[in-house]
Amino acid sequence: MKVQIPDELKKDAPQTQWGKLFVATPVVMTVVATLLAGLASSEMTRAQYDRALAAQQQSKAGDQWSFFQAKRLRSALQHNTLDLLQATTEVRAFNVATVEKIGSPADSAVIAALQKGEPPAPPPAFALEPSVKAALQAVETSKSETEIAELLRKVDDRTLADTMQTARDNVLAFDDATKPVNQTIERLEKSLADGDKTLLRDFTAARLQYAAARYDAEARLNQAIANLLELQVRKSNISAERHQKRSGKFFFGMLAAQAAVIIATFAMAARQRNLLWTLAAVAGIAAVAFAIYVYLRV
Fold first, then answer.
1. Per the CB 3.0–4.6 Å rule, which of 7, 119, 273, 278 could disulfide with 214?
2. Is the Cβ–Cβ distance between 206 and 86 less than 8 Å?
3. Helix, strand and coil percent figures for the chain, each rounded to 5
4. 291 and 36 in contact (C-beta within 8 Å)?
5. Residue 109, SS3?
6. Interhelix angle 273-297/17-88, nearest 10 degrees
7. Distance of alpha carbon 103 from alpha carbon 129, whole angstroms
8. Residues 6+ away with beta carbon under 8 Å from 5
9. Distance of alpha carbon 166 from its chain centroid, rounded?
């Protein structure tokens, strides 16, 4: 059975490739608008994630600064107590041979701790990657946020994470090095508690001097971790701001694509296809070009 199309309907049917393309314009622009809406939503989600990550990192940085302040405060208390002890009574150098009384060999670490007030040597300072070092110096010297952000863009996330892990490993290594010395000093203190008061006074002065130096070293190690965490916080905030800006620009691109859909729809309704479909196509192309620009450059 052959179907005849009325002449009135034939007028509305596109007869050329351009006509078919114009008919497809609203559908294509709808797809483009949907994609841009998805990109805008995705960028906003990533911005929110980075904000949440920055908040977590800031909390960790606050903990490390608290550790740093606590260590410095303990060091100051040890110094003050030692000053009071030396000002009120005569203090002599502690005789390390006393360590043998409790069956502990007087190794070099214990001798350095009680005679010189020196803790075991902390791990050697590790070399910072140039971009990380430059960013840390910018923060320490209170450079502008724009300058700091520019330097942080050059810092690789993996490099910063590896540097952070090295700083944490140094803290653990120093703790392991001081633990045997601390245990020996604790045993000595218990052994001398009920003995010669003069010997106990000399030991107390030596212990205070050692403890102050140990807390100072621990404070510096915690400070290094806190500074690196501050860089991570700033990087996360910068990333969040970037994704938020991209989301806004993708949203404007979506609006342009939706405008193209509306123009094309009105064109079909008003049967003014050539001009209005051309405007729709231009709006759609502008939306796609803008989205590509945002994705690559912003």
1. 119
2. no
3. 85, 0, 15
4. yes
5. helix
6. 30
7. 47
8. 13
9. 15
Q: Count of CB atoms within 10 A of residue 72's CB? A: 17
Please tell me whether residue 155 adopts helix, strand or coil conformation: coil
Distance (Å, whole) CA 186 – CA 181: 9
The larger pLDDT score, comparing residue 159 to residue 15, is at 159
76, 24, 47, 41: which is closest to 216 by C-alpha? 76
pTM of the model: 0.75
Q: Is 3 helix (H, G, I), strand (E, B) or coil?
A: coil
Nearest to 35 by CA among 262, 295, 218, 277: 295
53-93 tens-digit pLDDT: 999 999 999 999 999 999 999 999 999 998 888 888 887 87
Q: Is residue 22 within 8 Å of residue 198, measured between CB atoms?
A: no
What rounded mean pLDDT belongs to the chain? 81
| Tokens of residue 256, six digits | 């342009």
DSSP string, 51-62: HHHHHHHHHHHH
Taking a C-beta distance cutoff of 8 angstroms, is the pair 160, 231 a contact? yes
pLDDT tens track for 221-253: 999 999 999 999 999 999 999 999 999 888 888
The sign of the torsion formed by the CA atoms of 68, 69, 73, 74 equals negative
Q: Which amino acid is at 40?
A: A
Could you give the 3-state DSSP secondary structure of residue 104? coil
Interatomic CA distance for residues 149 and 231, integer angstroms: 10
Tokens of 227: 């500074």
For residue 186, the one-letter residue type is E
- CA nearest to 40, candidates 192, 207, 258: 258
